[in-house]
Amino acid sequence: LPRPIEALQAALRETEPACAPAPGRAVVHWFRADLRQRDNRGLCAAGAAARAAGVPLIGLYIVSPQDWAAHAASAARVDFALRSVARLRGDLDALDIPLHVETVGARGDIPARVAGLARRWGAREVYANMEYEVDELRRDARVVRRCAGEGVRVRVLHDTCVVPPGELKTGAGGQYAVYTPWFRAWVARVNGDGEVLREAEGPGRNPGDARERLRDVWEGAGEVPEAPEGMRMDKDERERMRKMWPAGEAEAWRRLGKFCEERIGAYAEKRNFPAADGTSSLSVHLAAGTLSARAAVRAARECSGKKTDKVDVGPEGVKTWISEVAWRDFYRHVLVHWPYVCMNKPFKPEYANIEWSYDKSHLTAWQEGRTGFPIVDAAMRQAAGTGWMHNRCRMIVASFLAKDLLLDWRLGERWFMEHLIDGDFASNSGGWGFGASVGVDPQPYFRIFNPLLQSEKFDPDGEYIRKWVPELRDVEGKAIHDPYGRGKGALAKKMGYPEPIVSHKECRERALKAYKAALEQD
Ligand code: FAD
Predict the structure, then answer these.
(1) Which of 274, 277, 282 is nearest to 393 (CA)?
(2) What is the ipTM, given to two decimal places?
(3) Cα separations (Å) of 343 from 126, 425, 440, 457?
(4) Which amino acids are annotated catalytic?
(5) In angstroms, what is the span from residue 417 Cα to ligand 1's centroid?
(6) Among 427, 424, 445, 423, which residue's Cα sits nearest to residue 436?
């Protein structure tokens, strides 16, 4: 079967001759997961096309609740996107560029709606940045054909990855399935071509008479709507989240600057300790596209203190952080090449033979942070309370769900999307594939995290646990990691903290057996 990206590429190729750019009355940039004006390749190209044709630029954003539902987007993520759209509108307004916000009931309506708006505005060119998720690629292929039918050319550019998918090949010409050699190729590509990290120019200001020429567009630009029914937080929750996660591009740059100034130097040492404020918390901005991954890498490189264009020289903290940002690219490359991996399928088919448990009480305990394993519970409560979870903890809770509880990893993957503010299809699917040992370049199945040892190693003083599990606040010393096993059961019980719902030792054996049996079936 052709990959979805090939379907889009074919649509772009086949429609190209049918719609050579004709001078229209405007050029459109359709914003999706690129809610920024700085360093935005599609927007930059749209701005250049508009200037070349002497016509104004119009921004478009389509609110499509069905697409959010299809990705199980959390209410916090939806709210963040809408707030970022409002900020973007303000930023574009200062450049006399209108941002039209359109809401569609059914996502199948999008191709006709884009074509209809282009026609109404007299635009002959629509620009966008590529989204690599399967449904989005298929949607874009339909948009390209529909618009071509009306003489409108759609251009879809690579933007979200530092190195676009498909550019890094193994010696045999295939896609890398292992991160380490892939990363070597990534570094070589970034170091070897100054264009890769080059900042895309801003869209520029619309011509002086644009407000007059686009009066209808300004007047019908539409309000940025409230989150759709069923995707709303209650008022208190919304205010809390908004305070914690200010939206928009300016905030992304503020966070990036502060991280590079204050914390990147110690990133390599601190990044695995959830109680330390050691990571950037930029994932929400990278997921919404209020910050480009190129900008993140450039900023890190610039604060390396060395006069170099290379991404693999300089302080450990800088190099390590850049290599983490690269993981985001890696999982997008995987998504494009093996789309089924992100469609609820294991990378290697034999892993489909695993007999998962569907124990409802275990799943509920995991979701509610009441497993009796303090590090797991702290992490799950952090996610529920903030919409974000530390990377080390994401690995711990993923391993716990799939290996200790032998619950189908897809249940955890979905819960993450439903609750995280930085829910990102490719990275989430990649992370779960790693933790449950079913993905591309996974943790070997026989490496099963011991939650107690993870807790002792990465939260040695129990600071993180005490913050998120208040029932254990008064448990002193090492007992915090395992109150029932270390003589503090009475105190934990009195405070209402549950006993462990399973025995790690027994579960480990059970998981090893289940994975082994699955592999032997093949
Ligand atoms: P930093 O440590 O500051 O890293 C900088 C950036 O690099 C991150 O913002 C992120 O964009 C990228 N990055 C870092 N680590 C990874 C990684 N392992 N995989 C992919 N990108 C990475 N990340 C998401 O953005 N959205 C998700 O839905 C998501 N789900 C995950 C699920 C599981 C089970 C696991 C193990 C990891 C998941 N990750 C996800 C990756 C990672 O945990 C987060 O990106 C990171 O914790 C975000 O915090 P930060 O911005 O402070 O990261």
Answers:
(1) 274
(2) 0.99
(3) 29, 10, 13, 34
(4) 324, 327, 356, 391, 409, 432
(5) 13
(6) 445
- Closest to 401 (Cα-Cα) out of 347, 357, 443: 357
Closest C-alpha to ligand 1, atom 5: 325
pLDDT at 23: 74
pLDDT score of 21:
63
Q: If you take atom 7 of ligand 1, which residue's CA is the nearest one?
A: 325
Structure tokens at 18: 């049918």
Does the predicted TM-score (pTM) go above 0.90?
yes
Q: At which residue do the structure tokens 């030792």 appear?
A: 505
Q: CB of 297 within 8 A of CB of 190?
A: yes
To which residue do tokens 């644009």 refer? 210
With cut-offs at 50, 70 and 90, classify the pLDDT of residue 521: confident
Q: Residue 184 pLDDT more than 70?
A: yes
CA distance 324 to 25: 43
Ligand 1 site, CB within 6 A? 271, 279-283, 286-287, 324-325, 327-328, 331, 391, 394-395, 398, 416, 420, 422-424, 427-428, 430-432, 434-435
Return the number of other C-beta atoms located less than 10 Å from residue 198's C-beta.
12
Residue 340 above 80 pLDDT? yes
C-alpha 110 to ligand 1 mean position (Å): 30
In 246-405, DSSP assigns E strands to none
